[in-house]
Amino acid sequence: MTENPNPPSRPIDHLALCGAAGAPALLIGDRVTTYAELDAGVGRLAAWLLEMAGAPGERVASWSAKTRLACLMPLAAARAGLIHVPVNPLLKGAQVAHILADSGAKLLTTNAARADTLGDDLPEACAVQELKVAEEVIDSGGQGLPPSGAGPDDLAAILYTSGSTGRPKGVMLSHANLWLGAESVASYLKIAPDDRVLGVLPLSFDYGQNQLLSTWHAGGAVAPLDYLTPRDVVKAVARHHATTLAGVPPLWVQLVESDWPAEVAAHLKRLTNSGGALTPSLIDAMRTTFPNAAIYPMYGLTEAFRSTFLDPKFVADHPTSMGRAIPHAEILVCRADGTITADEEPGELVHCGPLVAQGYWRDPARTAERFRPAPRASHYGGTAVWSGDTVRRDANHLLYFVGRDDAMIKTAGNRVSPTEVEDVAVASGEIFEAVAFGVPDARLGAAIVLIVRGKAGADPEALAAHMKQNLPNFMQPQAIEWRTELPRGPNGKLDRVAIAAEWKAPS
Length: 507
Prior knowledge:
This protein is an alpha/beta fold. It has a domain at 409-502: ANL, C-terminal domain (GMP Synthetase, Chain A, domain 3, 2-Layer Sandwich), CATH 3.30.300.30. The protein contains 16 helices and 25 strands. Strands 9, 10, 11, 12, 13, 14, 15, 16, 17, 18, 19 and 20 form a twelve-stranded mixed beta sheet that branches. It has a four-stranded parallel beta sheet with strand order 4-3-5-6. The chain has a three-stranded mixed beta sheet with strand order 23-24-25, with helices on both faces. The mean pLDDT is 93.
């Protein structure tokens, strides 16, 4: 049966109305927010955000840990007709300043300590409001905005993601993108109103934000968690009786090595993974540690939210498969000319359908590279995301990842731009040039290696200190090697392939 090419959607802020009024929607610490309280809080926060931003269509950013405000922002901004820009709390001031300037944000909600790190880099047009002020608005009892009547194509959010070159770019997501993504995940994960989802992933990631949206679509409850150690996750599963946990491979490695009381591990009935592939040995360890849990390996990209999932019934026999298309997604494997490959023939993964984003914010050139007309064979037609990832399809229509065409480094569940790491290194003043690349790592997926050509009298410790000060932990090189010369190609540019090939991992 062919799926409806135009599935119905609702404004994303209507998720606050999906659960029973008295049912729990949000669990933060000992505080329980019901669906009725969620809807009222979203309305009050929406009214305040609109007053602060000045007019519908403006961008409003949030930069914080998983506070109640951070959780309500995606719905409240949308209800006010504003565009939410969530910022990864691990980013440093200069990176955040770029996102604020690039998005043209009129408002940033954060705490004083984070705001101070922006210094003079804070764009003049961007006002800053303390988190505690916004939290007080949620509880104020004042008049809030009613559920919005936004159209499916109205812009609701801009999520910034690293590209293989240059600074992060903003992916534009509509109400339909977010609503149908929430509906899709809630459907294939079979989330129910009595489920408790432990949200450990950053809300600035589409995978992390969907922990909120898909759970609320199903009328369940989310328990956001900022954790320092795997033990914190174990304790949170026990405290909230969590049934669902989403993670990335490095986290699963840590969790299966942790001490799980049998009665706590038994609470979990579904585990989801994205941000890198699970190895067969890790899947076996997860099955042993969490015997009651179904495992859902998934593949996605911010430009189209999520593309595939592997049904748990196939995991044991096909542990390396990406699975098949999620609901509302059409996934084609194409040759360079746009025709469909034969079974087992590698081709580019092309994502079609209503989950495809609207392009990159104010960047028509890069939008045109990735967002192109769908192949003629597409049922949906329109614009598709040409992923740049090579996959193959077997006779059972299960997909398998073959390779990535771009130079992105996928480390600890994060996509890191080599150029961004290199630019920070050069800005230290200690080196002339730098080349960053990823190498396989059992725990991280890929570890970042930085090869540099230093200046006379350069101080390696000064470079390392500069990197630690200006890049988040997940972007730190695991190894920095100094060279007097670097290989170059015929055109005089650095030969990145040769540099990476020459590198030898330390023993």
